[in-house]
Design goal:
Chain lengths: 116, 112
């Protein structure tokens, strides 16, 4: 199956700093990528839909100025958590679907962010 | 809007026991249905899927049947193993949106 690589797998940062998370589709082109957030022992909540070459579409309640998403190419989307605070600590997961229709989503390994 | 409801966990079973994890959904149109598995510290992996009513998805001994009349997609396995211990997520896709809507997840613990 298609492979999505997410980096880093974990990161610890200080409050007030910014952290960038990368999501790459390794063997396919992804016109659309999705960013999810998972709180401990809870489900995944969609944060935003990232479209190559255009602005991301954010879900209600997600601060677009805090969670900056860039989808500059068909194989790379990045999520930058700006001015991170401890409440931003979470597990962030990206996924991508194959172009041309939805039959399956492929997920990255996830990034565990801890803000201290 | 779309929603997925899963039975609450954790579910604790002995090895070789029969597993059922219930999943029901609410959706407009005809979504595709999925079961994803998440092992500790890892991302989600697709376990099985069904794209239309009465389809049965199966993989690694797990099965689930898309039941439109009961809006359900229950996950079953005849004989679980310790290695099946993980969190299982039921999900549906909205054809018009392509993002997934997830259930709350069910943690399965299989004891030797």
């Amino acid at each position: 199956g298609a492979v999505v690589s997410q980096h880093p797998s974990w990161v610890i940062c200080k409050s007030g700093t910014s952290v960038k998370i990368e999501c790459r589709s390794l063997d396919f082109q992804a016109t659309t990528m999705f960013w999810y957030r998972q709180f401990p022992k809870q489900s995944l909540m969609l944060m935003a839909t990232s479209n190559e070459g255009s602005k991301a579409t954010y879900e209600q309640g997600v601060e677009k100025d805090k969670f900056l998403i860039n989808h500059a190419s068909l194989t790379l989307s990045t999520l930058t958590v700006t001015s991170a605070h401890p409440e931003d600590s979470s597990f962030y997961i990206c996924s991508a679907t194959l172009a041309g229709g939805f039959t399956e989503a492929f997920f990255g390994q996830g990034t565990r962010l801890t803000v201290v | 809007g779309n929603s997925v409801t899963q039975m609450e966990g954790p579910v604790t079973l002995s090895e070789e026991a029969f597993l059922t994890i219930n999943c029901t959904y609410t959706a407009t149109g005809y979504p595709s249905l999925f079961w994803y598995v998440q092992y500790p510290g890892e991302g989600l992996q697709l376990l099985l899927k069904a794209t239309k009513a009465d389809d049965k998805g199966s993989n690694k001994g797990f099965e689930a049947t898309y039941r439109k009349e009961t809006t359900s997609f229950h996950l079953e396995k005849g004989s679980v193993q310790v290695s099946d211990s993980a969190v299982y997520f039921c999900a549906l896709s909205d054809p018009g949106r392509r993002a997934l809507t997830f259930g709350s997840g069910t943690r399965l613990q299989v004891q030797p």
